[in-house]
Design goal:
InterPro entries: CdaR-like_regulators, CdaR_GGDEF, PucR_C-HTH_dom, PucR_C-HTH_sf. This is PucR family transcriptional regulator. Belongs to the CdaR family. Pfam families: GGDEF_2, HTH_30. The chain is α/β, with parallel strands linked by helices and about 500 residues long. It folds into four domains: about 110 residues, HprK N-terminal domain-like (Udp-n-acetylmuramoylalanyl-d-glutamate--2,6- Diaminopimelate Ligase, Chain: A, domain 1, 3-Layer(aba) Sandwich), CATH 3.40.1390; about 120 residues, GAF domain (Beta-Lactamase); about 150 residues, Alpha-Beta Plaits (2-Layer Sandwich); about 80 residues, Arc Repressor Mutant, subunit A (Orthogonal Bundle), CATH 1.10.10.2840. The protein is about 45% helix and about 15% strand. The protein has 18 helices and 15 strands. The longest helix has about 45 residues. It is rod-shaped and about 135 Å long. The two termini are about 80 Å apart. The mean pLDDT is about 85.
């Protein structure tokens, strides 16, 4: 409801019987307040106020006109016994000041009271509308209901939008949104009407990620204030909803991370308890699984991973990779499950999609490892472990692939890429005593043996020693490292370590 102008007020009670005797050229002013004055007193007059006074002598009224004009009063209403009591000079003065002057014959105090109620009716309606909205928002637990209430109560188009202007609830905004993550509530007008934008802040130390938007046609200032107040009121409910969703997501993320950690630590024989927890998490354990590990380069804290989970999930979903996404200490694990073993082409498609996705996640440097397709719960464990190991050899620098996957070409790339500092550190721990100068011959023998596809004969020929010497050295190496060189996985790990040392 818009505030009435002086012209509107003169057309309705209690001023519809009043006579305007001056200042009639300035009737479109919007009054802001009503002030009843007793004779002999001229207190501070608010700008835009209607001043109502009782019977005044001619000079007193003219003095009052000058004083309230200096305060930019919008209308003076005065009581008279008869028209003759008004001096002609008073009419001339009102015209010269362009200050509307109306005379009434009724009770000035009653007139002032009724005018005050009329002037403040929009504010009263504003308060009632907000109170009604507040009552209806009580107990509302989802954003869509909040948006529907705003639209119903205010007669507006509203929406909840997130990053990249994605609409989470409500109607798609038709106007450009001037989103500023550093600012507060914003309102603006254009030729199409009025827009209000209210940020939703869930945490004190992070920028808003959600915004409430309201759009209307052309409206008055009072309605604009009402809409802005209503959106700020609704923002409290949206903030509570967003905080609840975040807590639920963090609780679920913690549960999923714990279950996956137990699953990966269980070995080939997964305990029934862990299987039950995995099922409770909604994971499909039967079928063929391809493990994927997304490594966040430079991430050093759980918050580094947690703050990017939504962006990572959205990026994966955009390429139709919609398997579970579980937060890990260094990134995320996910997997793709099917009823049959994935073909080589299917695996290449997954690698291609990951190569497309990883550079697009904002404020992140991501690399990935993709494990082999393996069957059942034990296979899921193995492919995820394999994917995480492969991710550590991935990279965006020269000689590396952003996505490493477990095939023969991938192994060759791993051998060429095993040069990073973190790999060197792990390699030194793996090789242990072989790195001592006293065991240089053993280290050289091991590296040559692994380079020559684990052939003792070829190693002896390359080093110029007897084959039996190679066999003895290999036995000594197994003793020092506590490793079984007949195990192909052990040989691969040691081969990588030798390349990285």
């Amino acid at each position: 409801m818009a505030r009435p102008s002086v012209r509107n007020l003169l057309a309705e009670q209690p001023l519809d019987t009043a006579t305007v005797v001056g200042g009639s050229a300035n009737l479109d002013v919007i009054p802001t307040e009503v002030l009843a004055l007793t004779p002999g007193r001229t207190p501070d007059v608010p700008r835009g106020a209607i001043v109502v006074t009782g019977l005044l002598e001619g000079y007193e009224l003219e003095l009052l006109l000058r004083r309230v004009h200096d305060h930019e009063a919008s209308l003076v209403v005065t009581a008279v016994d008869a028209r003759r009591r008004l001096l002609s000079s008073t009419t001339v003065l009102a015209e010269r000041l362009a200050l509307p002057l109306a005379v009434i014959e009724g009770d000035p105090l009653e007139t002032a009271r009724r005018l005050w109620v009329r002037i403040h009716e929009p504010a009263s309606e504003h308060g009632l509308a907000l109170a009604r909205l507040a009552r209806r928002l009580q107990g509302v637990g989802d954003a869509k209901t909040v948006i529907k209430l705003l639209d119903t109560e205010l007669g507006i188009r509203s929406a909840l939008v997130g990053a990249e202007h994605v609409v989470l609830a409500g109607t798609e905004p038709v106007r450009a949104l001037h989103i500023d993550t550093r600012g507060g509530t914003k309102t603006w007008r254009d030729r199409d009407g009025f827009t209000c934008l209210v940020p939703i802040k869930v945490g004190d130390r992070e920028p808003p990620r959600l915004w409430l938007v309201a759009e209307t046609g052309e409206i008055g200032d009072d309605d604009a204030v009402k809409i802005e107040s209503a959106l700020n009121l609704a923002a409290c409910s949206i903030t509570a909803w967003a905080a609840t969703e975040r807590l639920r997501a963090e609780r679920d993320a913690t549960f999923h991370s714990t279950v996956l950690a137990e699953l990966l630590g269980s070995g080939p024989q997964v305990p029934r308890r862990v299987l039950s927890q995995a099922v409770a998490a909604g994971w499909r354990l039967e079928g063929w699984h391809i493990g994927v590990h997304l490594l966040l380069v430079g991430g050093s804290a759980p918050e580094d991973v947690r703050s990017r989970t939504r962006d990572v999930r959205d990026a994966l979903a955009a390429q139709h990779l919609t398997g579970p996404l579980v937060e890990r200490g260094d990134g995320w694990s996910t997997w793709i499950t099917g009823g049959t073993e994935a073909t080589p082409q299917r695996r290449r498609d997954i690698v291609g999609k990951l190569n497309t996705i990883l550079p697009l996640v904002p404020e992140s440097t991501l690399v990935a490892g993709v494990g082999r397709p393996l069957l059942g719960a034990p296979g899921l464990v193995e492919t995820l472990v394999e994917a995480q190991e492969l991710s550590r050899f991935a990279g965006s620098s020269r000689g590396r692939q952003r996505v490493e996957f477990a095939d023969e070409a991938g192994v060759r790339r791993l051998l060429a890429a095993a040069t990073s500092e973190d790999v060197r550190a792990r390699s030194q721990r793996m090789l242990g005593a072989l790195l001592s100068p006293a065991n240089a011959d053993l280290a050289r023998t091991l590296e040559t043996y692994l380079d020559l596809e684990s052939s003792a004969t070829s190693t002896a020929a390359r080093l110029g020693i007897h084959r039996n010497t190679v066999v003895k050295r290999l036995g000594k190496i197994e003793e020092l490292l506590g490793a079984n060189l007949s195990d192909p996985e052990v040989r691969l790990a040691l081969h990588l370590a030798c390349r990285a040392k």
